[in-house]
Design brief:
With 123 residues, the chain is of the alpha+beta class. Helix content is 46%, strand content 37%. A 4-stranded antiparallel beta sheet has the order 1-2-3-4. Strand 3 and strand 4 form a beta hairpin. This is Lipoprotein.
């Protein structure tokens, strides 16, 4: 039983080296980073869908995300639109062998026509 486990571990190590990864630990860090980025993307997608579906109002947007970094007015399809940009998201990432953590902030824009959210995009 132990011999089979040892052989399996050795094969996995060889496969990881053949795949261009220098160690299983590096593979784990890459997998963790990909999971964190994708889970943030999924949460953001859910947030966008709900905001547009429910026709979130300007007050609800400000309550949800706080003060915008910038606000622009624009005309879309003959209607006045307000585009508010917010600083959002703290994406955790790992660097180097010491697994130091960092934070990366992103930006989100909410487009409101007639006082309701019609689109949300991430920059």
């Amino acid at each position: 039983m132990n011999r089979g486990l040892l052989v399996l571990t050795g094969l996995l190590l060889l496969l990881s080296l053949a795949a261009g990864c220098s160690s299983p630990a590096k593979m784990q860090r890459q997998a963790t980073e990909e999971y964190i980025l994708s889970s943030n993307a999924l949460e953001f997608e859910k947030l966008c869908t709900n905001a547009v579906k429910t026709g979130m109002t300007r007050q609800e947007v400000l309550f949800q995300w706080g003060s915008p970094v910038s606000t622009k007015q624009k005309e879309i399809d003959g209607k006045k639109a307000v585009i508010m940009t917010f600083e959002i998201g703290k994406i955790m990432y790992f660097r180097g062998w010491n697994r130091s953590e960092g934070v990366s902030k992103g930006h989100m824009s909410a487009t409101l026509i007639d006082g309701q959210v019609t689109e949300i995009t991430r920059k």
